[in-house]
């Protein structure tokens, strides 16, 4: 149905961390987790509420801009994103 | 901030103004150059479910949306919601030039609490509020079109959190409306209502566990394909076995084992899909599925946090002192791998009524787990997701049965050997802040410290307040009488501000001055009591924030204050380092 190779690449990227941790001591994981800065958890998310345009060529989305969420649009063909408001 | 597409070249957006939950609806081209303010409201108190909001996006209308509000034409042609003189209307508003055409007018003779329109913008159902023999009642009325008069369909007592019917979508020919009914099933069931015969069809789906979340419709919104419902996790039920939509869901779930796969958006031809893949440990990645190309490409990741460092949200259940089955989640820190009890924070959700904690990435929970704490999330009675009876059992149980469920959960976690009984804290926001204060004042022996975030301290203030989500009708006292509790004695006994003397441990309090829900009066009543009784406390009061700090700086600042507070009063295991103790010289005898 979709490109399996691409899917596998993505999957590897997502699960690399988990595989790595399973082999290490929990104390090391605890230490690494503890060192994650507060901002990592509570800064505004990179993206929120993305929605496809009715024709499917663009994605509207919210992104952080000057401490608040702004609206952006991503053109799937040109791979360019720009701020709307 | 949120938005919807209006055609392929314009967006309609909703923006919060000034943190106090006032909003305006605007529209813009994709360059942000032609921005039109469509509707605004500066007066939160006057908004209720019937006034000030989007009724329908009118997805087949290129230029217009259906909006409800009190519209006033100003000299600049702007329409606004919030006039004190005009009656509210439902109107189609042109998003390019603000052209307004009223499709429904509210009148002074009746109180309409909601309307349901079809995609053409015809208001086909309305809910009229009546006192029926003294009982607040919702009367459902239907009309075929503007030429016909309203006909009563059903009447139900007002609930406030789960009305007897929840309207969903009309089917393709507009004859049937899908809805969730709670008339026959405590958990609710999906039905189709026949507008030709004004009768409710048989249940199409009844969950055996958990409540229905949403129907899965075709992109055009007319064909019912499935329904999602939620137990400890979200599940799907499909109406046409083996159909394309089910196969798509199943193949993606197989590709991302253990993760939640959610389609958030489709193109009109349903060939392009936007998918959210996330879990308790992965904040989520959005992918674009292109079925013509056969590709699945990453669009954006929500947060760059290594899921391998995060902790699983284990579903738990226990039995309360009065025999009720209580569900929740209990993510534990890495130090739990040692097998020893760990410090724990019980984190009651806000609401309290009809709200629940769900499985999925929760930054707050993972942050606390990363700092060495277990987090006990309890769907105490009064929560949503477990049926009407479970929800109703929370009524007038502030500081009583709803609080006992938290206490029972803490004692359960201690008895299970999960939590260290000397190191249990309570932290919550909104109702969770109330529960924190109730915990510190009514069960002070249980907790080592507490963090109250925008919490109610005085039920007297809560009792008198309007603007509580579902209850804004001036003459409807359901909220105070049915849900808070109308006995003075009970409110005195369960308002934490009256029992500050009982507090035995340090507390941290954070409030937003602009909060329209838990007004700052709660803190202004509480702080003098803390001072009077000489309690150890810290506080953070933000002038420009509301019900929860939304601005990044204030939000990060709050958690930045929380961390050292917890480290000081709820020492996490990992901080204990062998060999770092000092040699103390004892005086000779």
Structure description:
- By secondary structure, chain A is of the alpha+beta class.
- Chain A folds into 2 domains: 1-42, no CATH class; 44-85, no CATH class.
- Chain A is 39% helix and 29% strand.
- In chain A, strands 1-2-3-4 form a 4-stranded antiparallel β-sheet, with no helix packed on it.
- In chain A, strand 1 and strand 2 form a beta hairpin.
- The longest helix of chain A is centred in the N-terminal third of the chain and has 19 residues, at 4-22.
- Mean pLDDT of chain A is 81; it is low at 1-6.
- Helix content of chain B is 17%, strand content 34%.
- With 589 residues, chain B is α+β, with helices and mostly antiparallel strands.
- Chain B has 10 helices and 33 strands.
- In chain B, strands 26-27-29-28-30-31-32-33 form an 8-stranded mixed β-sheet, sandwiched between helices. A 4-stranded antiparallel β-sheet of chain B has the order 1-2-3-4, with no helix packed on it. A 4-stranded antiparallel β-sheet of chain B has the order 5-6-9-10, with no helix packed on it.
- Chain B is globular.
- Among the domains of chain B are: 244-309; 311-570, Rossmann fold.
- The interface between A and B is large, with 62 and 80 residues.
